[in-house]
Design a protein that fits this description.
five-stranded mixed beta sheet
Length: 224
Amino acid sequence: MELTVGDVCALLNVTEKELIRWIKLKKIPAHKIHHRFFFNKAEVHEWIINNNWKATEKILGLALTKMPVSLYSLLNKGGIFYKISGVDVPSVIKNAVGKMTLPAGLSKDSLISALLDRERMVPTAIGKGISIPHPRNPIVSDVENESVSLYFLKEAVDFGALDKKPVRALFIVLCANAKRHLEILSRISYLCQDNDFIELIEKQSEAFAILKYIEKKEIEWVKG
């Protein structure tokens, strides 16, 4: 096990008393070893994503894999697209995937099917008019083929968000393994807590402005 009670309290910005209460109620995964509670990094990342929890900046230093995750590089590779049409979730996802350049061996039909299967299980909308469609399981075999793509919709579409806001922007994530999947998702979720970034998304700002902002934030995160 990799994280202590104190570590997780700092990540979630909760008191030790509250965290212990969650553990006893089985609201958060924990492992008891020699009368002490410990946590797995990947399980904590997944819990934060599934509960749409506003983690502290410490989550950015909680790397799950040895190869660093760079949203700037992944988004620069995947691209930013505008005026995606669609009247519902299936048509929006189909039209978004239609804009993608996929690695050899991955068909657009299979990706669309994987994304829609995930949406049927649990909606990927995280609130504030943003959704992060992603396959349930990693769908590319090589880290070099990973990407994040951002799509701005022509018209807002209901993705079943908890805050009831229709979605106007999608991040579609392709990754090579489960740990990188969680790390990429948690970094996007953290970025979407940033009011300045949300303003860029709401204005459907130009690609260079969005990429420049993400690059600046990642430099700040590295510096700590």
